[in-house]
Amino acid sequence: MQVREHVDELERQGVALVAAAEAAGPDAAVPDCPGWTVRDLVAHTAGVHAWATTFVRADPDAVRDAELPGPAPGEDVVARYRAAHAELVAALRAAPPDLQTWSFLAAPSPLAFWARRQAHEAAVHRADAEAAAGRPVGYSAAFAADGIDELLTCFLTRPGRRLRSERPLRLLVAPDDEPRRWLATIDADGCRVTVSTAEEPADHTARGPASALYLQLWNRGAPAGDNPVIALWRERARITW
User: Fold this and answer.
1) 199: burial class by Cβ within 10 Å (0-12, 13-18, 19+)?
2) What is the three-class DSSP state of 116?
3) 181 with 199: CB under 8 angstroms?
4) pLDDT attached to residue 225
5) Closest CA to 213 of 233, 196, 193
6) How do residues 116-171 score in pLDDT, each as one tens digit?
7) Taking 80 as the threshold, does the pLDDT of residue 42 lie above it?
8) Best CA proximity match to 126, nearest among 113, 143, 150
9) Would you give the end-to-end CA distance of the chain in angstroms?
10) What is the four-CA torsion angle of 41, 44, 46, 50, rounded to 10 degrees?
11) What count of other Cβ atoms lies within 10 Å of the Cβ of residue 82?
12) How many CB atoms lie within 10 A of CB 5?
């Protein structure tokens, strides 16, 4: 996916997140974020978008480890989210292709990184809001596959991640509606991922629509099956950025 496509998707997912949050109500519990209400979820995502905007605008005062503000008493967090989301979308569309700014995952450029990361930030938390509202959610195969790729090849292969196993395990992610296959080898040194169109032997193969696999890999919804690979994934494949 290109930067323009990611920004368009960010715009769509943010609008859908707001609609789901309003349907759920601010005090609804978020099933896959224990202890969070919808107010907490929306405030968090607004904070992430506002933080990202400082880097997209190459703000010299941008802080990499900035503390994200929670909801203030009586605050209309949906209004805060709408404003932060609109500012981020506008900043990404106005940014030059050769933007020089900090980023933390591999990408063709810093601008490509921020557009992709924030599109999926909005999409995953939209799923949280939809779950709080008791509604299903789905994504296009292309966007879901892009999110699978970001999670597996960028996030979980970074040094220092908790996803590791003393006994080597292999997970093959094989969507029905996408030709790529991701083979994750998890051992004592961490996680390594290869991408191809080949079917490789694995301890567990995750199959289904890319949209469903995207949510499963982000640990949204009930686990698909019960085996050591899934148990390890649910415990250790957690993203805090």
Assistant:
1) exposed
2) helix
3) yes
4) 67
5) 233
6) 999 999 999 999 999 999 999 999 999 999 999 999 999 999 888 899 999 999 99
7) yes
8) 143
9) 22
10) -170
11) 17
12) 15
Residue owning tokens 């968090």: 44
| Amino acid 240: pLDDT | 61
CATH number for the segment(s) 144-236: 3.30.1050
The CATH number assigned to the domain with range 3-132 reads 1.20.120.450
8 Å CB contact between 215 and 127: yes
Which one-letter amino acid corresponds to residue 23?
A
Which residues make up the CATH 1.20.120.450 domain(s) of the chain?
A: 3-132
Least confident of 54-68, 81-95, 156-170, 214-228: 214-228
Alpha-carbon distances of 182 from 41, 72, 159, 213, rounded to whole Å: 30, 42, 19, 12
Q: Where in the chain is the domain with CATH 3.30.1050?
A: 144-236
Which pTM value belongs to this model? 0.96
**What tokens does 213 get?**
């696999």
CB-CB neighbours of 21 under 10 Å: 27
